[in-house]
Amino acid sequence: MTDPADAREPADAPDAGAADADAVDATMARRLRTAPLEAVGQFADASNATLLVRLRDRDPRTLDELVADLGHEPTVEELDPRDLAVYKPRRGEAPLWDFPSGTLHRREVAAWEISDALGWELVPTTVVRTEAPFGVGSLQRFVPHDPEQHYFWLLEQAEPAVVAQLVAMVVFDLVIDNADRKGGHVLLEQPIDGRPADPAVPRIRLVDHGVSLNVEPKLRTVGWHFAGEPVPDHLRVEVAALAAAFDEDLAPRLDGLLEGPELAVLAQRLRRVAELEVFPSPQGERPFPWPLL
Fold this sequence. Notes:
This is SCO1664 family protein. The protein is of the alpha+beta class. The chain has one domain. About 35% of the residues lie in helices and about 10% in strands. It contains eight helices and seven strands; from the N terminus they run αββαβαββααββααα. It has helices at about 15-35, 65-70, 105-120, 150-155, 160-175, 235-245, 245-255, 260-275; strands spanning about 35-40, 50-55, 85-90, 125-130, 135-140, 185-190, 205. It has a five-stranded antiparallel sheet with strand order 1-2-3-5-4, with helices on both faces. Strands 6-7 form a two-stranded antiparallel sheet. The longest helix is centred in the N-terminal third of the chain and has 19 residues, at about 15-35. The radius of gyration is 19 Å and the shape is globular.
């Protein structure tokens, strides 16, 4: 499957860069599942408990030892981003009337599985972590970014490679029926030394998918700017391919993350999105999230 960073139609030649990225993602997934970790901070504005944690497999020093070595509490910029992750414990999930309790962390992981199955690399590597400071939860690779470079800023810049990824984001949100795509949930990843990424191709990453993949339609997104425009053929083809391979490919990956009715509705959405010729216009009483950022 092609990478939405490339606005062209899919190429037939193997993508060595994609193979490298797959290897990096597999390594990160293994680290997220098994590496010793320690909480180093908290995202105060999050509606659910969201912690910044540090993986200690590459550098076993504790936070106290880092403080002693640095002579002060380290800032995020002073920590190696390759060792950071975002941890959302199940016990910190706020109850919602329209989502089953204790399932938001699983939806975070399911969103990554779907993005990965499509081959779009939109969602950072995300896993279920069982042994963690506050119990089971989702653990996602930290994305170094500038919070001022959000969805609306990216639209204004009109960088073709980025716009192509934003278009893929809209398709992805239709697939997962994202109920909360805020502008601040779209990050422009800053390059990290040692990561096999092409600095000439800016990459966006999508985060915060806990309120998605419901059985009832709940789409709320900032991504209505493409309403009425044609859905790129290569994205439709890739969604159709995943829909056709749903039982063999995607359903096993989502086992334990989504319930049977949610899987059935997801399969229906994949087929429906694959048939879309133009992007839909805002629908319903609340098509936009609040706040927008």
